[in-house]
Amino acid sequence: MQMLFNSTYDVYWQLSADKQIIMNRPSQVSYATFAQRLLAFNIDLTIFLVLLVPMVLFIADDRVFWCVFLVTGCLYHAGFESSSWQGTVGKRMGKLQVVDRHGNQLSFSQAFLRILLKNVSLLLFFCGFFMIYFRSDRRGLHDLLMKTCVVYRG
């Protein structure tokens, strides 16, 4: 077993052959639960819909609207998750942060790819999201593929 120290976030990583456990001095870091993440998503969705629904009045073609909706959503998530907030407005309100496997802030490209991979979970009938509920480390398919996790910083 090996211990690594990341001074930026004061996070220790305990590495073993089968599992990675994030620990924070003096107690273990809390992974965001399915309910916390769902609440944050609903807050973001509400904000997003309030801001984008008026666009329906100006964009006549449904395909163009959905493309704008998808691109804007990806930029919203990637921008906020790669910012110093390390999460969207909903995650900030819920005291959640998205971090990489070392406890660091994501780059814009990492955050953008992470949000694109969330769409894979949608295509798999939400199975990638339900993993959050059943896994002890509360990571979804997109988190596993991007080596990220969402933690509670309350």
TrEMBL record:
Pfam families: RDD (PF06271)
UniProt keyword annotations, A-Z: Cell membrane, Membrane, Transmembrane, Transmembrane helix
Listed name of the protein: RDD family protein
InterPro entries per UniProt: Pra-immunoreactive, RDD
Claim: Transmembrane helix is one of the keywords in the record: yes
Protein species of origin: Reichenbachiella carrageenanivorans
Membrane topology (UniProt): Multi-pass membrane protein
RDD domain segment(s): 31-146
Location relative to the cell: Cell membrane
